Description:
Elements: H1 7-32, H2 43-49, H3 55-58, H4 61-70, H5 84-91, H6 106-122, H7 141-146, H8 152-155
Helix pairs in contact: 4-6, 5-6
Amino acid sequence: MTHHTTSAHRSRRGPAWLAAALLLGVGALIASGVSRADDDDDDEHEHRDRAPQSAQMVSSPGYKLYQQECAGCHLAYPPGMLPPASWQRIMGSLDKHYGTNAALDAPTVRELSAWLATQAKTAPSRRTAEAPPQDRITRSAWFVHEHDEIGARVWQRPSIKSAANCMACHAQRADGQPNFSEHAVRIPKQ
């Protein structure tokens, strides 16, 4: 028995098949997270707020001093992560720097303080709208929001130790700073 398909039958089947395929495709895109119009953690904000430091900033004497004096003990956090007033308080209490004596000579403190304040002012964002409690980046509203899916036990893993250890989960860029892109996050299992 031969089955003949008429052109009328093909035209009825064609649009229905195409509509079903389109619905399945759109559903797959939504399920995979490609459509994120209502997600405030999207890449559009990511690139604006997490842009790498400018070449001008990195080549400045203040940056080199900041790397030399601060990165020897911890990540030299991007200055735009705190408002200028927070940096001023931090630099004014280096003898009690989060439980450690990190005191520097007065000329170095003045130079670093001025540089940090300038850099923090030139990188304003939703991050620095207000000073976080105790001037801790990890207590700021934006940090808590960005990491709200991370449970307290994750921060206690031996390879992470604390929320301040950005490099544990954020891969290192070529300039030595963490890559804060959500696509580069790798949370250690241990």
